[in-house]
Amino acid sequence: MQFLKPFKIAIAEGRITASFRHWRAPQAKPGGRYQIRPYGAIEVDVVAPTAIKGITAADAKRAGFADRTALLAELEKRSKPGSTLYRVEFRFIGDLEDPRAALRETILDADGFAALAAKLARMDKNDPWTHKTLELIRERPGTRAGDLAPSLGWETQRFKTQVRKLKAQGLTESLETGYRLSPRARDYLTRLL
Questions:
Q1: Which of 94, 125, 141 is the last residue of a domain?
Q2: What's the whole-model pTM score?
Q3: 187 and 133 in a common domain
Q4: Residue 14: which residues within 8 A CB-CB, separation 6 or more?
Q5: CB under 8 Å to 102, separation ≥6 — which residues?
Q6: Which listed residue, 20, 112, 125, 136, has the most CB atoms within 10 A of its CB?
Q7: pLDDT of 98-156, one tens digit each?
Q8: CA distance 123 to 162
Q9: Long-range contacts of 51-58 (CB under 8 A, 24+ apart)
């Protein structure tokens, strides 16, 4: 889950414990832990469809807004056709060790390179996208997903989903804005040349 910096600070201080999101499908799940860089992480307790009329002034405060009117105005701006409004309740849990951190720093030996190449080939089975995506991130680090996605002919959400798959392989890192390649990914691309 992504938050603007002022919201991240308030989350880390325990002042924000909820968010309202327009999604076509839930992008968070109960029990899921999500990094709020550089402050730590949250653990989600509730993800549930909700109606605008059910949002209270107290809900708006928990989500970091001055009042219900301010929250509703923001939700109106972010509404998307075909999306559902979800209430997400969470708690700040502090530092969370990212299991991909060590993987990102791993330099590949011959067997590791072969295993990663085979894994990416399987991911590319129906549509070769992994190499193109890695190259795009290498060329434009720190660029918003919404600005990168059109280069591949994708919508922003599809781009984010695909980058998460690369991140799970230790190949990308999320920045405050955009992404960058990990040392593992740079090593992999160098070996392809």
A1: 94
A2: 0.55
A3: yes
A4: 91, 92
A5: none
A6: 20
A7: 667 778 888 889 999 999 999 999 999 989 999 999 999 999 999 999 999 999 999 99
A8: 10
A9: 51/85, 52/85, 55/20, 55/87
